[in-house]
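[Structure tokenization] protein backbone as discrete codes
[Encoding] learned vocabulary of local backbone shapes
[Protein] chain in single-letter code, fold in tokens
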Amino acid sequence: MSCGIQNIVATSRGYRGISCAYRGPDSFNFLNSEAELNQSDKNYLSEFKSKDSVCLTVKTSALFDDVICISNNFQKLIRIISLIFRFINECKKNSKECGAPSKTEWQNAEIYILREVQVRTFGNEIHSLEQCGNVTPNSKLKSLSPFLDSQGILRVGGRLRNSVLPYNSKHPILLPAKHKVTDMIIQYYHKIQFHSGPQALLHNIRQKFWPLNGRNLCRKIVHSCVTCFKANPKISSQKMGDLPEDRVNPNFLFNSVGIDFAGPFYIKTKLRKRDPPTKIYVCIIICLSTKAIHLELVFDLSSEALIAALKRFMVRRGKCRKILSDNAPNFVGTKNEINRLFKLMEQQDALFQNFLSEEEITWSHIPPKAPHHGGLWEVV
């Protein structure tokens, strides 16, 4: 038994250790130590498990950044911050308060949010204002004359200090152009203003805030609003038809005319001052081919007055072959009266009947509820 133990002790690697431990310090070569190990030493070292080094990086984020990441609404963001402040105060005072945030808590939370946004984006300007009272000459806020108010909020300066306007209107709060809080504020105002357009939205925002590059920001918010997109669909344009033949072909003066009335106008027909003014209308007759205009004065809108105006017109300008008008009752009545007169004359004289059939005036109307067909005289 003792012989076996002595043999184990004499040959045991665990008892004696590795062979390099018996060498002198001068014999160690750390650069080539692995090459000098014999096979038994290598087998012994292979039994040990290697240890891997792990590097862990811990990033601490501020409370403000965490709250912004979970909120897409400015009112919700203020409510969350105000409730967090209430919880902190309750922990300090060992008291408990329930209900919605009060006005003071709401204002304090809003001031905290705006101050944090400005410190993260306008840190150099705020530091310069605290040190020397002015921003650096190369600052992008130099033209706005910014200053810090009593609450540490960066505001726009200007020359309205003596104005009776509200303080927020005289000195609006500066907001950065590229920040999530700025987008949330613009979206909030766009919603409470019933989805107003970019110009009205920017005007309402500038009563309290001054976002940098505000016009482009408001335009971006309005164009990305789903409600506004649904309420303002793309309007299809109507393809217009061809112009009438009388409009595009040359012809004699007042051969084809369009008729319309303008007025009423009031004139004095008597010399006495107490006499009431007389109501008159102007009959506009325009040539469809040359755009020449003839004006006739009428005292009412009856068919008789229109017939008299046409007679005076034909005496001075000659007979027209075609008349075009809208569907006013006096025009329709005059057309029926002329047709009735033509039929009466046609029954009395065959020669005159042939003449009327050759020289008869054609009276036509534009389609109902289509004033663009009479755009030529409507412009006049």
